[in-house]
Amino acid sequence: MGIFELKRSCVSIGEGIRQNLTNQKKEYIQNFFSTMQLVFAGNEAEGIKYGTIETSEKYFLKWKEDTKATDVLSSEVQNIQSSENNKLRDGIISLCQKERLLSIIHDFVIYDAGTKKIARHNQYFANIAVRKRIASD
Question: What is the pTM of this model?
């Protein structure tokens, strides 16, 4: 479903992204990526960034948890996250908590003219908030 390239804190997330992009080339392990929905790169200093297969480095996204979100899933994610500041751990929890990960893959991955794209954090949270409002009307 997803692949992680985690680096030491002294190595940039960009190195992990570029390594994943290189690995997706035909001469490396392209077939391994054919079923991947998400590609992650991170370290403890910078946190985590995500994209889909063949996402160029400049389009990898950093997830930001919406502290104002009132849905049950967001509350659960915030409760799981540590009280200590660990950007990598909190980022992984935010994106990979099982219900959220499945929701992202099912509802927020699209194909645009054959290119796989994924929602940004603000698009995700806006969509969830609108669903809640529509359901209550």
Answer: 0.83
